[in-house]
UniProtKB/TrEMBL annotation:
The keyword Aminoacyl-tRNA synthetase is annotated on this UniProt entry: no
Protein name: FAS1 domain-containing protein
InterPro entries recorded: Adhesion/Biosynth-related (IPR050904), FAS1_dom_sf (IPR036378), FAS1_domain (IPR000782)
Organism: Tegillarca granosa
Keyword vocabulary terms for this entry: Signal
Record carries keyword Signal: yes
Boundaries of every FAS1 domain copy: 16-146, 150-373, 377-508, 515-645, 649-896, 900-1031, 1042-1121
Residues spanning the signal sequence: 1-16
Alphabetized Gene3D superfamilies for the sequence: FAS1 domain
Lineage of the species this protein comes from: Eukaryota, Metazoa, Spiralia, Lophotrochozoa, Mollusca
Pfam families (alphabetical): Fasciclin (PF02469)
Length: 1121
């Protein structure tokens, strides 16, 4: 294919434009104005220079007073401007971190390179645009005007009255010389910062010079750090003796060093940079205390001292030394406890969350906490004794002889209030009083044998307790509240010397565990419908005697039943009793005892089955999802379910026999002798209805009838050897079946529907004694293959079909569809072109693999790694590996039309490619285009016409050049449009193996700049894409050249009068064009350009086009960013 290339003049600013002109073109009008005012324009035009050029916005940041002063003082203005200019051409590639350059003002400026955010600064000003090349240097655009520093860091401190205390301390510590070093960053505390330390601290430092020196050096970083390069949570090593680090923190437009806010940043010095800081510790933790507490402490300094000492521990303890339950003795003599919660990475100390760790000081560590720790008033027993709201709990603890047990260490107690006990009623309290072992177990169910503060508790967490069965409490969060089981915690984190107490108001924790029976717990849980039906069926007394486990439907579950069913049950108490008993099992069965496919015998004598689905953590009982587990009662467990379980009417076979909609399935099952197989246990059957079989057609049914082994295999493909209820099926799940190949059914969800393969399940979860049945509207066991039963295609044996979707057929012109409906022979050939002998899964596909179809023609796989596309004869495969009993189906998005011949045949047969054909013959390339796996970008006649007769004649008389140009349009592998991506480069067959650049714009794609007007024309040996235009060619002398090519938009910037004049004066035009061409091949790597250049040899027209002496070369250039 030919490339149509437009080569033109490049923008004026980058070619022979001087520094001043480029600044003008770049819009730096303020800088230009000031340069002219300072009389520096001529200086910038002589010799090589590099300018760090502030934008207009950068100058606008300066105070107006500064601008006014500079406009009056041209000497000062000149000095500042010269501070932005360096002798020599310095590209960005020459910059290194801390590199210093001497400016025209004689002062130095420093590069800093920050890798984390790719920022580069010069004297702290961020460079926003690099390497604007001019004829006498470089321009780098910066976002801030650089003001020459007034001296070294020490000079800055001496000259700033706000740093006088710092200056005194620096002198006292003999650090003046140290601050004269190079490449330093100083975080300079202001006088106000020192004042906050207090006179005692200042005096202490004055008398401890080594400590003072170390503290001051902790404020000095041994490299230059401007604010443009500092990032949140960065740590900067300092010069103190331990090389401790300062932690940077950003908050809005402010940044902080540790907790010290920087109030003035980026004060440049000749040997580094200074940032002013002021220290601002947070008071939020103290603000959480009641005002009355704060007032009392301000009056009682002894109590205040004790609380403060409670926050201090002897020794340096970093966070790395903390372990869970580690106890530390404080200066007050009391202990505080670390707790580490891995799930949310929280670490607490006596329940207060540590929000910032390891603030290193010269004599220890500081860890910041979010709450003031109040020393506990005693042990857990002491707290219960001292709280009148827990008096009933205290009485029960004493009655059960548990006082000693609650004196243990590292305990958490969920303490029910008096109101919680009152809700149980006097009968329950009396019952507990006379059953001390039961009372003890219930009370120990409220005790967790490790410390659990609220900061570490997470939603749905389960905490093992000290009761005899080690049952667990379930934590639940709702808004700002949290619950233990269903008991709301009304007061959390009450510290004790041996653990923590959480006070609970009432809930399942109390009502379910304190000797409440099954019926009472159901009532408390709101299962009023179930309670009403239990009472109607006379089962309440049965549920009160012995241990039971109830699978309890919610009111909403009963509401799902048809009203007619509810009405019938209310009249037939025997049937109602049987259904309710079907929900009850003898014995206490916690959720921890459940295993997948475990079957339990109910009070009705029938069995129900647990199923556990790991992927979504669902647990079902007879297909009903358990929504709440382990509601413990004094005589068993309750598990809440979302659907009423209806006892099955028989086995899977019984269900099929009894359903008139499955009569065809029944006949086929009997025909295949599979009745016994369907009597197995734990089966799932996707049962096709009569309508599903009808869709297959009588031919298929007859074929199956006469092929019993095939029929058997197809039927077993509908049977899964384990129980799969809809609650556990997930999208794209694959279920292995009982067919001979253990093929899998693919589950698909769409809205409220789910599908087995593509067969919609119209009735799900029909329980049977040995499994579950799902009714399917459509059979998918080979119907996709038999769908192609039209016409002479023998589907006995293994086949692979590339199956177009309905939408694919809809893409065909109606006239084509009409013609095929009349010509069954042609239709058969097209359909056979989509079918290959043998089972070919996607894993067998390789790029350029060719398969022979039933029509005798070949189709080709192409695999495009960049977008994971796979095509067959250019049609994209949208769904792979639909397995059938006799092969595979791969779904494609386009109907494949058999090619009419080779690439040459296509060119010969297309009148729009007659000029291309003539040129191919002239260059003796017919044989070359007969090769295999080729892609041709074929220029139409119109494309050639655009070249003009001179170029055509010239090519005709230069066969080697013509051949190379034509081969530039041929790619030596198959490239269909489905696999071409934007900015892709395709290597060609021309002598230099130059590449074509693919470009996408909307629904169009281009080869170089030539729009493809007809894509994916299949041939027996590859594919053809027709292109509508060439790029124009410009002729230049023999040899290697580099062209700087202006866009159309660049020419459009010229005044119309200039364009008109050039069109009349070809001599002037030639001179301008030659001004854009340089001898030699100059890639971007040599000059930091962002374009790549590819050249091929071409001939220019001359006075005698046939003269070899006048041979010239035409350079064809493709620009890419």
């Amino acid at each position: 294919m030919f490339k149509v290339i437009l080569v033109s003049v490049l923008v004026s600013c980058a070619f022979a434009a001087d520094l001043v002109q480029v600044l003008q073109d770049g819009g730096q009008t303020t800088l230009i104005s000031l340069v002219q005012k300072a009389g520096l324009a001529s200086a910038l035009l002589s010799g090589q220079h590099t300018i760090f050029a502030p934008t207009n916005a950068a100058f606008a940041k300066l105070p107006q007073s500064t601008l006014d002063a500079l406009s009056k003082d041209t000497s000062a203005l000149s000095k500042i401007l010269q501070y932005h200019v360096v002798d020599g051409s310095i590209p960005s590639s020459a910059a290194t971190n801390e590199l210093q350059l001497t400016t025209l003002s004689g002062q130095q400026i420093r590069f800093n390179i920050y890798k984390h955010n790719h920022a580069v600064t010069i004297q702290g000003s961020k460079i926003t645009e690099f390497d604007k090349k001019t004829d006498n240097g470089y321009i780098h655009v910066i976002d801030t005007v650089m003001m020459p520093p007034e001296g070294s860091i020490v000079d800055l401190v001496v000259g700033d009255s706000e740093l006088s205390t710092l200056l005194a301390q620096v002198k006292s510590a003999n650090l003046v010389q140290a601050l004269q070093g190079n490449n330093l960053t100083v975080f300079a505390p202001t006088n106000a910062a020192f004042t906050r330390l207090g006179s005692n601290v200042i005096n202490h430092l004055t008398h401890n010079p080594s400590l003072l020196k170390d503290i001051l050096l902790y404020h000095v970083v041994p490299h230059t750090e401007y604010s443009a390069g500092l990032f949140n949570r960065e740590r900067l090593g300092t010069l103190d003796a331990h090389h401790d680090s300062i932690r940077i923190h950003h908050s809005g437009s402010n940044f902080y060093t540790n907790n010290g806010r920087v109030i003035k940043a980026d004060i440049g010095a000749t040997n580094g940079v200074v940032h002013h800081t002021i220290f601002a510790p947070t008071n939020a933790a103290f603000a959480k205390l009641p005002q009355s507490t704060l007032d009392a402490l301000s009056k009682d300094t002894s109590a205040l001292s004790k609380i403060l000492q409670y926050h201090v521990v002897d020794g340096s303890i970093p966070s790395s030394a903390a372990t869970n339950e580690l106890q530390l003795t404080t200066l007050s003599g009391q202990q505080i406890r670390f707790n580490i919660y891995k799930h949310n990475h929280a670490v607490t100390i006596q329940g207060s969350k540590i929000t910032e760790f390891d603030k290193k000081t010269d004599n220890g560590y500081i860890h910041v906490i979010d709450t003031v720790m109040m020393p506990p008033e005693g042990s857990i027993v002491d707290l219960v004794v001292g709280d009148s709201e827990l008096s009933t709990l205290l009485a029960q603890v004493k009655s059960a002889n548990l006082v000693q047990a609650l004196q243990g260490n590292n305990l958490t107690v969920f303490a029910p209030t008096n109101a919680a006990f009152t809700r149980l009623g006097s009968n329950v309290i009396n019952h507990l009083t006379h059953n001390p072992s039961l009372l003890k177990d219930i009370l120990l169910y409220h005790v967790v044998p490790h410390t659990e503060y609220s900061a570490g508790l997470f939603n749905r967490e389960r905490l093992g307790t000290l009761d005899a069965h080690h049952d667990s409490i379930r934590i639940h969060h709702s808004g700002s509240n949290f619950y233990a089981n269903n008991g709301r915690v009304i007061k959390a984190d009450i510290g004790a010397t041996n653990g923590v107490v959480h006070v609970i108001l009432v809930s399942a924790l109390v009502s379910c565990t304190f000797a409440a029976d099954l019926v009472q717990v159901l009532q408390d849980g709101g299962q009023t419908t179930l309670i009403s039906l239990v009472q109607k069926a006379g089962l309440a007394s049965a549920l009160l005697s012995g241990q039971h486990t109830i699978f309890a439907p919610t009111n909403a579950a009963f509401a799902k039943l048809p009203q007619s069913t509810l009405d019938a049950l209310s009249k037939d108490t025997s049937a109602l009793s049987k259904i309710l008993q079907y929900h009850v099992v003898d014995g206490s069965i916690p959720s921890s005892a459940a295993t997948n496919e475990l079957q339990l015998t109910t009070l009705s004598g029938q069995q129900i089955r647990f199923n556990i689905y790991k992927h979504n953590h669902a647990v079902t009982i007879q297909g009903s999802k358990i929504t709440e587990f382990d509601k413990k009662t004094d005589n068993g467990y309750i598990h809440v379910i979302d659907t009423v379980m209806m006892p099955p009417e028989g086995s899977i076979v019984d269900l099929v026999v009894g359903d008139s909609e499955l009569s065809t399935l029944l006949a086929q099952v009997k025909s295949a002798n599979l009745v016994q197989a369907l009597q197995g246990n734990n089966l799932t059957v996707f049962a096709p209805t009569n309508a599903a079989f009808t869709r297959l057609g009588s031919n298929v049914i007859n074929h199956l009838t006469h092929n019993p082994s095939l029929l058997k295999d197809i039927l077993l493909y509908h049977v899964v050897p384990h129980t799969e209820y809809s609650a556990g099926l997930f999208n794209r799940e694959r279920l292995g079946t009982l067919d001979a190949h253990h093929d899998s059914i693919r589950i698909h969800h769409s809205g409220s529907n789910f599908y087995a393969n593509n067969g919609r399940v119209i009735k799900a979860d029909i329980g049977a004694t040995n499994g579950v049945v799902h009714l399917c509207l459509r059979c998918r066991f080979g119907s996709s293959i038999t769908r192609w039963r039209t016409n002479n295609i023998n589907f006995i044996g293994q086949h692979t079909i590339f199956a177009p979707t309905n939408a694919a057929f809809a893409k065909l012109p109606q006239s084509t569809l009409d013609a095929l409906s009349k010509d069954t022979s042609a239709l058969s050939k097209i359909l056979q072109y989509h079918v290959v002998d043998g089972s070919i899964p996607s894993s067998a596909a390789t790029n350029e693999l060719q398969l022979t179809t039933l029509s005798g023609q070949q189709i080709r796989f192409n695999i495009y790694k960049h977008n994971h596309a796979v095509t067959i004869q250019g049609s994209k495969i949208t769904e792979f590996d639909k397995k059938t009993d006799n092969g595979y189906i791969h779904v494609i998005d386009t109907v494949m039309m058999p090619p009419e011949g080779s690439i040459v045949d296509l060119v010969v047969g297309d009148s729009e490619l007659s000029t291309l054909l003539a040129q191919v013959k002239s260059a003796n390339l017919v044989q070359a285009l007969q090769g295999n796996n080729l892609t041709v970008f074929a220029p139409t006649n119109a494309a050639f016409t655009r070249l003009g007769s001179n170029v055509i004649n010239h090519l005709t008389h230069n066969p080697s050049l013509l051949k190379d140009i034509l081969l530039y349009h041929v790619v030596p592998h198959t490239e269909y449009s489905a696999g071409l991506f934007n900015r892709e480069r395709l290597g060609t067959l021309d002598a230099h193996h130059d590449s074509i650049r693919i470009h996408h714009s909307g629904s169009n794609f281009y080869a170089n700049n030539g729009r493809v007007i007809k894509a994916d024309i299949g041939a027996t040996n590859g594919v053809v894409h027709n292109v509508e235009s060439f790029k124009l060619y410009i002729i230049f002398p023999t040899g290697q050249h580099t062209i700087f090519a202006p866009t159309n938009a660049a020419f459009a910037k010229l005044p119309q009068s200039t364009l008109d004049a050039l069109s009349k004066d070809t001599s002037a035009l030639s001179k301008i064009l030659q001004y854009h061409v340089v001898h030699g091949s100059i890639p971007s790597s040599d000059n930091k350009f962002d374009s790549t250049f590819t050249s091929i040899t071409m001939l220019s027209p001359s006075k005698d086009p046939k003269s070899q002496n006048s041979t010239r070369k035409l350079i064809m250039v493709s620009f890419t960013s």
